[in-house]
Amino acid sequence: MFVSYLILRNAFRHKLRTTLTMIGIIVAIVAFGLLRTIVDAWYAGAEASSSARLITRNAISLVFPLPINYAQKIRQIEGVTAVSWMNWFGGIYITESNFFPQFAIDGPTYLDMYPEFRLADAERKAFLVDRKGCVAGRKIAEKFGWKLGDQIPIRGTIFPGTWTFTLRAIYEGADAKVDETQFFFHWGFLNESVKARFPRRADGVGLYVVQIRDPGQAAEVSQRIDASFKNSLAETLTETEKAFQLGFVAMTETILAAIQTVSFVIILIIMAVMANTMTMTARERYSEYATMKAIGFSGGFVTLLIFGESVGIALAGGIAGIALTHPIADWFGEQMGTLFPVFVISHQTIAMQVGAAIVIGVVAALIPAWRAARVRIVDGLRAVA
Amino acid sequence: MAAIPVSYIARNLMTRKLTTALTAGGMALVVYVFATVLMLAEGLRETLMATGQPDNVVVIRRGSQTEVQSGIDRASASIVETLPDIAAGEDGGKLLSKEPVVLINLPRRETGAPSNVVIRGVTPQGLTLRPQVKIVEGRMFRPGTSEIIAGRAIAQGFRGTALGETLRFAQRDWTIVGVFDAGRTAFNSEIWGDGEQLVQAFRRNGFSVLVFRLTDPERFEAVKSEIEGDQRLTLEAKRETQFYADQSEALAKFISYLGTTISVIFSIGAIIGAMITMYASVASRTGEIGTLRALGFSRAAILVAFLGEALLLGLVGGVVGLFAASFMQMVPISTTNFQTFSEIAFTFALTPFIVIASLAFALLMGFVGGFLPAARAARMKIVDALRAA
């Protein structure tokens, strides 16, 4: 009790210095938390994937389509319970900065396979019966102020021309980890238009989504699918949805690694600042430490005082930082909009923030504590700050 | 009015080495991050700028933005080929290359993680149009065969792409017979093969992009309006330099925005560090300040002296951070450009602008951190200051 009281009083002897140090730690902990959350947002697609879904695509690369008749063949493969398909549309809504992903899907099968996209029954029916209908995620519908029945024009980059869809449904995610910025319309509608205008490109599918009975059989079923299209004009590559999503993450892993590194740099920076604070504090109090030793306190007690003060300040700053991370992350997520569809602070991030605060406090106290514990009583009493 | 000598300022920093080192170290880390990010964005920009030739024109399907998304049928290609402004090569033929461009998925040499690599079909004219491309290992592919050549960054970074290795795609085995170096350009991250062979292997009936050289670079606007105004064509034309600059825009912007935001937030930490140090410096020298004032130094001189100390601290941090960042020029970077969805290799580029910007940033941190403490020192009354000591 006495020790903690002493530490508390010590910590507030230089109010300005302690306040400044704490602000520094708050900024660092918030920045650290945000950067980790940005990294998490990158992995959101992989996190949200289901282990009971496989993705089959053209073995050469995603740019090449697969023929639509593969759907029948895949459905007959043992272990497969359902098949759906989609095409990446890559269109632009008004300007390029309004980015959101658009997919041409096989309506009924796709929506059944992704129960995490929640649609009202009436809206779902309205979408399925309207050939030119579309479904939008809640976030983009709010961002662009779309209401059911609105006409949405999208300029194609892969499929030329302006395509107009009628908004029939708005989906919500089953939980916070579901991307609510996607846009779906009927593959059949896309295919009809393509058939009329570019007959050679018709009946192409970007990728198949395959539902399997037993997630434990994912590897075997994938091999069975790929084997049945071996040496055909369009060989396939099948992997779990998670592996498929992680493939995208891996493409930008350099940038991701940079962000991760940088998130630790801020901890280093604030460690230097905190260490500086503790060094100055201890230097000013050498004569006090010597006095305490002279009246019988051990070197260990002096060390405890310094560590206690350092870790105490760091933890107080850390907790304030963690509390502030939430509103700031919410605001940041709003601003980023569709760039980071899922922006949620994970428990792991919070644990790392607490850990970082403790490490900052401990490391900062190392040199001053070592010096103070070793100071000879005579030298200490003589010392001038 | 006398000024306090610079040596006095510098020696104040020298007396407390640990404190100075910690404060300047914090600033150095911020400057390091700041400079590295600017170098990264600049390196990407330089690479894509160097890829284009000013008198070359790129033609893609209107609205398709990238080569991979574009498609040009043979009839349209022939119409463009008849334009009078296309320069003639040494053999008298037109300097125009009709190129299929597709992406293939290849595993990285080290991690095995797949990434998309551009594979481009070229003709002899295509090589004349890109004088920066030189074969450094092996030889050129022979037209009409399944031979391909790989850019240096690809040969180093991806499995199955070094000299003598084979790749299997589109139901054929393709042998790498050469490795080419295209300097610091985007072509270094591509694989090249015979255009007609690739069109057939991928079962296409047209090309992705047309590239040609103008007889007179000044005529670009006229040629552009001729292509874009032609009712039979749905194509758009861009200068090659502009085309590649546009492709790097989003990624370069993303890197520099993210980096600048991070640096500014980080700098708050470093500024606070400087502030704590300078407040302590002022507090421990209260008596000294009183003496200096009593000797006749003005308030302004005291202000300048303490600000000078903070600026010097910033400068030391800036120089150290910049020095560390300059080593990053040796680190090659390879990532996916999300605009083209394909791999691009580049390096960090340090320019005089980045040096000045980083040092200015460091000095600004010193100034902001040192201003309030310096003002406190300057405001002290002589009597109080002397009594406090």
Characterization of the model:
The complex is a heterodimer of chains A (385) and B (389). Chain A has 385 residues and is an alpha+beta fold. Chain A has helices at residues 2-11, 15-47, 70-75, 107-113, 121-129, 138-144, 187-197, 218-228, 241-251, 253-284, 286-294, 299-336, 347-374, 377-382; strands spanning 53-58, 66-67, 80-88, 102-105, 117-118, 133-137, 151-155, 162-173, 183-186, 204-205, 207-212, 236-240. Chain A contains 14 helices and twelve strands. The relative contact order of chain A is 0.18. With 389 residues, chain B is an alpha+beta fold. Chain B folds into two domains: 6-49 and 247-388, no CATH class; 63-233, no CATH class. Chain B has helices at 6-15, 17-51, 74-81, 124-129, 152-157, 195-201, 220-229, 240-284, 286-295, 299-326, 352-379, 382-388, and strands spanning 56-61, 72-73, 96-99, 101-107, 114-122, 134-138, 147-151, 166-169, 172-181, 190-194, 206-207, 209-213, 235-239, 332-337, 342-347. In chain B, strands 4, 5, 6, 7, 8, 9 and 10 form a seven-stranded mixed beta sheet that branches. At the A-B interface, helix 2, helix 9 and helix 10 of A face helix 2, strand 4, strand 5, helix 8 and strand 14 of B.
Provide a brief overview of the structure.
Chain A is an alpha+beta fold and 385 residues long.
